[in-house]
Amino acid sequence: MASLKKYKMKIMWETAVVFCLCSLSLVSSHSRKFTTPNVTRLTDQFTKITIENGFVRRFGAHNIQVNGSLAKLTLDKSSGAGLVSKNKYHYGFFSARLKLPAGFASGVVVAFYLSNAESYPKNHDEIDIELLGRSRRDDWTIQTNVYANGSTRTGREEKFYFWFDPTQAFHDYTLIWNSHHTVFLVDNIPVRQFPNRGAFTSAYPSKPMSLYVTVWDGSEWATKGGKYPVNYKYAPFVASVADVELSGCSVYNGSSIGSGPCTKSGGSISSLDPVDGQDFATLSKNQINAMDWARRKLMFYSYCSDKSRYKVMPAECN
Q1: Cα gap 205→94, rounded to integer Å
Q2: Which of 8-12, 193-197, 209-213, 265-269 bottoms out in mean pLDDT, i.e. has the lowest?
Q3: pLDDT tens digits along 22-32
Q4: Domain of 63: which CATH number?
Q5: CB 88 within 8 A of CB 271
Q6: Is the overall model pTM greater than 0.85, yes or no?
Q7: Which residues are catalytic?
Q8: How far apart are CA 222 and CA 67, in angstroms?
Q9: Alpha-carbon gap, residue 205 to 66, rounded angstroms
């Protein structure tokens, strides 16, 4: 009888331990308290535009609602939805405030990115901020990526946890792209810098791109080969977009259009856009410290640490 009692106590203890471990795995990263660094609010320096002035509907028009500077993009069984900028840009400052779908959103992808895949299908460039919906044990996460000249076989992903709940309020997502570097920012905090120098140069996006904002079903791609697909029982999944800033060198067939001044000479584009000056050539000391904070506290994957993926690391990782 005593041995039976000890056995039951052991089972209860092991069950309690497993429950605690599972509970810890369910704790959201944004439920932990973070003291965020102080940084310059770059998003206060640029002009906001209405959705209709900056974008056209790229797909899923019936799932797009626009009201001035606010757009709601919906994913349901019929379709996702996407906007694309009216202009192409060669360098610039691109930002929007996004609010992500709440609830169980595994497999849902909200993307804010630059691309020229439609103009250069075999050697396109791309700069991505992709927000990946959570499964029952995962938070929404931030994935950043860079492609140049069709280098899709070399994924340059870096992934981060949020330090806030992105479904409860609007937050800023920003891309700075110029001849010096590409910077990814969340709420004006740099999380990643991709320089245009040394071994990075061959992997640096160089051709004019359009800006896209989309919501779509990424089950096969974003959830470990479809392990946690989108469950449309929880649809519709609504991503809200507001306060868009598109400020840069607008180009069409190599010629400037609109208010973004640029000239083409000697086979290259010389831009006078707002992020071409010295203030945007490097990160400030506060921005460097903030980026270090984000990478130490929140980054959980970098392609340069993935030795199982690459037998020979991309040149810039060395």
Answers
A1: 15
A2: 265-269
A3: 433 445 666 67
A4: 2.60.120.200
A5: no
A6: yes
A7: 126, 130
A8: 30
A9: 31
